[in-house]
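Section 3.1: Structural characterization of target chains.
Under the original work plan, the team committed to producing a structural model for every single-chain target entering the pipeline before any wet-lab resources were allocated. The record below documents one such target. The sequence was received from the expression subgroup and is listed exactly as submitted; it comprises 349 residues.
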Amino acid sequence: MERRLAAILAADIVGYSSLMSAHEEGTLARLQSARKSVFDPIIKAHHGRIFKTTGDGLLAEFPSAVDAVRAAVLVQSKFAFLNSELPDAERLLWRMGVNVGDVIFEGADVYGDGVNIAARLEENANPGGFWISRAVFEHVKGKVDQVFDEVGFRKFKNIDSSVQVYRARLEQRESGLATGGLFDFPDGQKKQVTAAGECLCGAIRFELDQPPINSGFCHCKFCQKFTGAPVAVWTAFTFGALRYVRGAPKSIMASPIARREFCGDCGTALTYRLIKPEPSEIFVVFTAAFDNPADFTPSVHAGIESQMPWMNVLDELPRSLCEASRTLQAAWTAAGVDNPSLWKRSSKG
């Protein structure tokens, strides 16, 4: 028996009994898929370990409260993506709770009030969101790009002392993207704006608070169709750098591996983000949407397998095929597509 400090994440499906009653086999299949494609890889990537599962939930331990909270944000963000593509009856909506405390490790299992408090936080959390204890809040304050609202002190069953609770602000927009709190600046303080832009009609306006990673051209058939141009120009940023200050975008799964945002009024292409095998930490803004697109100079040509034969580009920038990208190939593999060049949207049926 060993004692040590650990962060505990508890997760549970909302309305599991009703889902099972309506469609038992389908619900079990979706739950297994959720474990395999969402929870397991995200928890592992954040140095966590699932130590207990129930029919409709799980418990995981992390060596860091920051890792546990980041994993919770990413899991809920990914389910916001996935649920936006499903009818209400097939959506898996999760509650989560995160606590940090001194817990007992015995074999592969974990015990103690630290675990019990995480479970009580999860039971009371809002569907699609998560609650954290004051202990977690003190560990993550200023270290994660996430806003928390104080709920107050709560008395939980079989817990001797009241627990001070904070709620993660994860409002969902019409697009199904976890914008709102996820893109808000910590503690409500606005960071320095490094770039800004808007759509053609002005209904959507956005700001970014981080410098770009890279800019480039993309000639792939998906970007051609999405923008209506023979080549798209993109600028990459770290996910979380952007927030919408006016309006909310629409979004579409134009392929099985990525979600694209656009203005629902004028159709301006705005952003692109890979979501296979899990949501990427990098996303791109289509450069022409910036107020000053000339500030972002392309440094590479991608997707040249679809470059139009009548479009002569005479620069000496490096060029690459989509099939040469290990990231894209991993995304297509995760989507179950062997030959991306043959995939068409109509194949979804």
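The first strand starts at residue 2 and ends at 13.
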